[in-house]
Amino acid sequence: MIRFENVGLRYGMGPEILRDLTFDIPKRSFQFLTGPSGAGKTTLLRLLFMSLQPTRGLINVFNRDIATIPRDELPLLRRRIGIVFQDFRLLDHLTTFENVALPLRVRGKEESSYRRDVLELLNWVGLGDRINVLPAVLSGGEKQRVAIARAIIDQPQLLLADEPTGNVDPPMALRLLRLFMELNRLGTAVVIATHDLSLMEQVDARRMILSEGRLDIYD
Amino acid sequence: MTERTRKPAPARPARPDPEREKQPPKPQLQVRPMAPIVPPANVSANALSVVIAIMAFLACLTLGAVSMVSDSASSWQSQISREITIQIKPEDGLDMQAALERARDTALSITGASSASIVGDTETARLLEPWLGQNADLDELPVPRLVIVTIDENNPPDFAAMRARLAETVPEAFLDDHRTWVDRLVAMARTTVIIGIFVLSLVFTATVLTVIFATRGALTGNRHIVEVLHFVGAEAPFVARQFQNHFLLIGIKGAVAGGIAAALTFAAANVWTGFAAATPESDQAMALFGAFRIGFRGYLGILAIIAVIGLLTALTTRLTVIRTIREIDVVRSDPSRME
């Protein structure tokens, strides 16, 4: 589904942050992306999300070379990818329900067609009684769950999550992990960038370890 | 990749949570009506609205003033060029009354002269009253007498022919066609209107720039919304449309407020000149500006300014949003441009 070949990236004239990355993300796969702070996990997620161009190498996303994809087509491809940002990126004037429904709204769907699905998902992430609450009054963990719900509401083909359990307690982290696994079971490839070793120990999944710009993969 | 056939419902838990099952079912909360994607009002939007209102007010005021001065200048020119004067200087042995009548008849015999009237003794005395006082005896003084000829503006007489005919019939007569005055007034009116248009274009330029910068400033506060929408898969025209409609409304609201304030100012000035008629202040103002009325064309101009400012705000918003999206996709995705 996604293929990296000899991908390298440097910011400006600085040193290479990522070097000779060659790997693929198969369909329906589940993997953790880990490594020390500053290793380039977020940068790699941005490359996967097509919000950053590599300095060298080839990236194929959904069988398309991203160097040749016209800008107008990027949003359409991004609709097939759900992303959970480390800083959540929720819209402060929209309620929990409205934030989660946003991807469906921008696709031009009627509220009546997705209301039940959004409520069901919010119940599952434990926010069923917070649907009309604005992000300002949500805790960090609740915001995290809203961001996750927004990323998966349209059942993406690929889910990218940057430290998705960084702001929740262990039981909720486990609960969210189960959600990701269930999503994966239904066909979504999942990439979770995390430092949380205890979380990784819960699942026998592929591990991608970034260190000093290089990537080691343990299947 | 093959199309997936799973049902569109969101993921459900593989295993029910026993802790949650113990709790009684909670009543389903009502979802509030969907809020607009762009927040309806915030400080920057209100500030933008006020800035647009002020600039629209100034632009409408300038347009109205230019229109008034232009109308007044045309009116002066028209009033003065509508009449010519025949002046007869008293000389020894001249029968003034007969000369006046001859001059009047001569003027009327020329095609293009609509009417002619002799300024009588009483009117002449009143004209000279400021210099000679109330009881001046005009017969004792060598005072020139006047014949006022009204001309057909659409078919003016041949002034040279009239002058020649008068020289034959009344050699003491002097024809004043006010050409010097009219020429000066035309020049002054043109200069005034050119200055007015220059000021108007400056105000318009300032309005356009203010609207552009204020709109861009207000959009800066909403930049994160553009980013989030773009990253959840919204296409550029969709994002641009959300902001464009929102800012078009702000622009029109501000411009309507400014336009109405300007129209009310002109209406109030008009009422004031009505109340203060025949006072020295009012007379001075009326002499310079005419009536404080901007007329149908003026109000049409105010409407045009409102429409232009609204469209300008919407256009600026659209271009700014599209540029922001371009920056996200092109500039910020290029690592060589970052340090």
Detail the topology: elements first, then pairings.
The complex is a heterodimer of chains A (219) and B (339).
Chain A: E1 2-10, E2 16-25, E3 30-34, H1 41-48, E4 56-61, E5 64-65, H2 74-78, E6 81-84, H3 96-106, H4 111-124, H5 140-152, E7 158-162, H6 170-185, E8 189-193, H7 197-201, E9 206-211, E10 214-218
Parallel strand pairs in A: 3-8, 3-9, 6-7, 7-8
Antiparallel strand pairs in A: 1-2, 1-4, 4-5, 9-10
Helix pairs in contact in A: 3-4, 3-5
Chain B: H1 18-22, H2 43-81, E1 83-88, H3 96-109, E2 113-118, H4 121-132, E3 145-151, H5 159-169, E4 173-176, H6 179-220, H7 223-231, H8 236-275, H9 280-289, H10 295-331
Antiparallel strand pairs in B: 1-3, 1-4, 2-3
Helix pairs in contact in B: 2-6, 2-8, 2-10, 3-5, 6-10, 7-10, 8-10
Task: Summarize, please.
With 219 residues, chain A is of the alpha/beta class. Chain A is built from 7 helices and 10 strands. In chain B, strands 2-3-1-4 form a 4-stranded antiparallel sheet.
Explain how this protein is built.
Chain A: Part of the ABC transporter FtsEX involved in cellular division. Important for assembly or stability of the septal ring. Chain A: Keywords: ATP-binding, Cell cycle, Cell division, Cell membrane, Membrane, Nucleotide-binding, Transport. Chain A: Pfam families: ABC_tran (PF00005). Chain A: Its main location: membrane. Chain A: It is found in: Cell inner membrane; Cell membrane. The complex is a heterodimer of chains A (219) and B (339). Chain A is α/β, with parallel strands linked by helices and 219 residues long. Chain A has a domain at 94-154. Chain A has 7 helices and 10 strands. Chain A has helices at 41-48, 74-78, 96-106, 111-124, 140-152, 170-185, 197-201; strands spanning 2-10, 16-25, 30-34, 56-61, 64-65, 81-84, 158-162, 189-193, 206-211, 214-218. In chain A, the strands form 2 sheets. Chain A has a 6-stranded mixed beta sheet, sandwiched between helices. In chain A, strands 2-1-4-5 form a 4-stranded antiparallel beta sheet, covered by helices on one side. Chain A is globular. The two termini of chain A are 17 Å apart. The relative contact order of chain A is 0.20. The model of chain A has no long low-confidence stretch (mean pLDDT 91). Chain B is α+β, with helices and mostly antiparallel strands. Helix content of chain B is 65%, strand content 7%. Chain B is built from 10 helices and 4 strands. Chain B has helices spanning 18-22, 43-81, 96-109, 121-132, 159-169, 179-220, 223-231, 236-275, 280-289, 295-331; strands at residues 83-88, 113-118, 145-151, 173-176. Chain B has a 4-stranded antiparallel beta sheet. The chains are: A alpha/beta (219), B alpha+beta (339). Chains A and B meet through helix 2, helix 3, helix 4 and helix 6 of A and helix 7 and helix 10 of B.
